[in-house]
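lol forgot to send this yesterday, sorry. struct tokens for the thing we talked abt
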């Protein structure tokens, strides 16, 4: 049985399927699912992120509306590059790779190569240096892949 977060996520995805965007009220959604508004915030903050190919716009007032947009491939790549920042943990890199694979921006083979080259074992450096090295290398590889003959 799916948990409430999975159910809320799927509901939002199904609702925005055709248009690629949705405007929702946190409070209305919480009422619909009979849960706390903080549960809706949790789903929005963890399931609808830049790394997963979504942008969000908050609209204050009137019960806290939020607009969620599914990004296009070019937008996704640019936003991911921008969001990586100066440091990138292995777990976050894996989330980004999963997203890029789901959107067919990179192949499974490319995902595997990046994962192998940038895993903690391959980057045998102290943590702070490792995450900085991973961020720089990841951005360089992603830029090169986007330039490639796809």
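and heres what i got for the seq, position by position
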């Amino acid at each position: 049985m799916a948990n409430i977060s999975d159910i809320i996520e799927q509901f939002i995805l199904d609702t925005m399927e055709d248009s690629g965007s949705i405007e929702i009220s946190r409070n209305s959604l919480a009422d619909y699912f009979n849960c706390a508004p903080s549960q809706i915030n949790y789903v929005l903050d963890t399931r609808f992120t830049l790394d997963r190919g979504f942008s969000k716009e908050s609209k204050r007032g009137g019960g806290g509306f939020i607009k969620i947009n599914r990004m296009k491939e070019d937008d996704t790549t640019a936003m991911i590059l921008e969001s990586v920042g100066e440091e990138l943990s292995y777990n976050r890199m894996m989330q980004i790779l999963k997203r890029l694979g789901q959107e067919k921006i990179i192949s499974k083979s490319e995902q595997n190569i990046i994962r192998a080259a940038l895993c903690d074992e391959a980057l045998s450096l102290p943590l702070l240096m490792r995450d900085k090295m991973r961020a720089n290398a990841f951005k360089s590889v992603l830029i090169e892949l986007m330039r490639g003959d796809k």
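The domain at 4-70 is CATH 3.30.56.130 (Phenylalanyl-tRNA Synthetase; Chain B, domain 1). anyway ping me if u want another try
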